[in-house]
Each structure stands twice: as C-alpha cells, then as structure tokens.
Please model this.
Amino acid sequence: MTRSVWLKADDEVGDWEARKRRITAGLEAGVDWVLVDEADVERVRDLGSVNVAAFTNGDVHVMEAEADDSDADATVVGKDGEGDGTVDLPSDFSGSADLSSLRQNGAAPEGGYVRIFDEDYEAFAEEVATEADFTIVIGEDWQIIPLENLIARVGDETDLITGVTSAEDARTAYETLEHGVDGVLLDTDDIDEIRKTVDVRDEMGREQLDLEYAEVTAVEQTGSADRVCIDTGNLMDHDEGMLVGSMARGLFFVHAETAESPYVASRPFRVNAGAVHAYVRTPDGGTKYLSELQSGDEVQIVDSNGRTREAIVGRAKIEKRPMFRVQAETEGGDRIETLLQNAETIKVHARDGRVAVTDLEPGDEILVYHEDTATHFGEKIEESIIEK
Model:
C-alpha cells in the first residue's frame, strides 16, 4: 500500500496568509495533497507542484459551469453539508444530497468528507465510501473504534483518509488493525510536525529486508573493468549502503563512502558499486544494471539491519579500475559473486563491522541479500536461470 499525507488548508485554518504559510511548509516537507476551498486552487498552483483537492458544495450544475475555471485534481463534498453536520443527516441515506452528488456522472466529486459524531455518521461514512474515490473521515476526540470499524468494512472500495493533528496520530492511523488507512489529513501549523508526519509516511512504505551472512570462498585480483560509482542526491549514514552483485539472486551489501581515510575524503553520497554489468537493487524490489543508471533514477539505500529508503541518482561515474572478484556461499549453499574495485575505500559488512575489500579473506562472513527468484529486465520471475 502506498501511504499519503494530505494537508488541511481551507478557510477554517485562517486567512490566506495563514493558509499560505501552512501550504508552503507542506510543499517543502513533501506532502502528497493539499485540501483547500475551490477559490484557493490557483493560488496553491502558484506556490508549487502538489496534488490539490478542493471542497465543493456539491452543486453539480455549478460544478459543470465552473469546470473550466477550477484546476483541482479532485473535488470533495461534505463541507458545509451533511458530512460535517451543517445539514442534518436524512433518516434514509437514499435522500442524501452529498451521496447524490457523488453518484452524478461527469463533474461529480471524487471525494467525500465526514465527521464521525456518532454511529449514524459512521454508517454514513460507509455509504460515502461506496461512491467516493477518497473518503476523508474526522474522528471527534480521536476515537480509534470508529476508525477500526471503517478499515474493516470499507476494504478496497475507497482510499480511506483520516484526520490527525500529529505525526504520532498518523503512525497510529497507518498501523491500526495492521492494515491501516491509506492516508492522513494533517491539521497543524507546526512545521516540525508536518515534516515528522511525512517521515512517518515514508517509513511506513519502506521495505524491510532479511539480510544474512555468507562465507567468503574466494577473493582474487582480476584485470581492469569499467567501474561505477553511484553518486546520489542523498547523504547516507555510517551503517548504510546499497545491495549490488553479479547475480540478481544474491546481492552484496556495500557501504557508502562515509568513512574518513588517509587517502581520500569521505563522500557520504557515494557507493562504489562495482563493474558495469552488475545489478543494484531498486525501491520497487527489482534491479537495474549499473550501466543503465543515470541522473534522476531511484536506487534503494539499505542499512546493516535491512531497513531501506530511497535515493535519487545524481550521476553514475564510470572509470576503468583494477578489480577484485569476490565469491561467497550463502547459508543455503548457493554461491554468489561480484566484482568490486581493488581499493581500501570500498567496504563490505562483516560480523565485526565494516571491512575493506582489500582485507577480505576466505572464511570471512559478510552481509548479503539472497532470494531464490531470478529476474528478467529487472523484474522477478519464476524461471530457471543459470548464472555463473
């Protein structure tokens, strides 16, 4: 599931200057959506690139007349209507104006907004979910039970978005019933809280890998090859690196160049990843050849505990360098290998920590990621492939 962060920035937040400050903070933090009133859509567009959702009064004729003037990516019905309690809920939902708007063809709203005051509004939110692409629910006093009920009942009918005021609340919403919500609607002016909520979103969507130790069976000098340094637009920590290797089923953990050396300054944005033929793991769980990488591509950063995040490639630096062939045997008996540059600054991860490839010896145990599946054009496939 891809999680999202929506930022509430309608007139309930304050005047335009207050809304503008909040929206600007959200753009800088990397929120996915901004929820505003229709009159502010173009103003938001002027501030930067972000998905914009706009509250609408649900009047389909007005919406059709103004369709060319509004550039919202999605419209949301429920504010100043039944969804927020301004208009009483009908005893029979078939008479609901909000639901009627959602059921219209053409210019119908994509989203519904419901404040959960009691069980009737919870039931109304379920009905909205059957019609809306996005269902935004606001729990009064942060009641978990209605949210659990909606997660369990709504399923994949809609993207369920719940209102929160902090990153801690967002984490709870993402983790509720293990499945969690699709997104959160954040209502805060606290810049740090906005950033923390985006960090929680990113953390929830990251893959956790099971790394294992493999025993080094051979380390030998080879001739020179075209070596690739992956220079990213992100700084890496001391325990982070990338997964690279000659065989997609078995990738070696290679540290970023974060350590100082008598020979060269640290370059914490770089992983010296090996020869051009090798694979590097990508955030979608696939692989790319090192030779294919170019500015703007995404690669996966991994730490020694298997936690992952994404990085943007700034450049791929290819130069001819002397190489080592490193071969290792996994716990399951599979032999994997790769080519790494013959240099003290290239470090893999042994049980006692970082070790330079120039100091590796047969019998050492180093960290790898092993899968039993093959890949074709970087995608996992169930096929018999021999790599040696």
In short: The chain has eight helices and 22 strands. The chain has a mean pLDDT of 90. The longest strand covers residues 308-329. The first helix runs from residue 16 to 29.
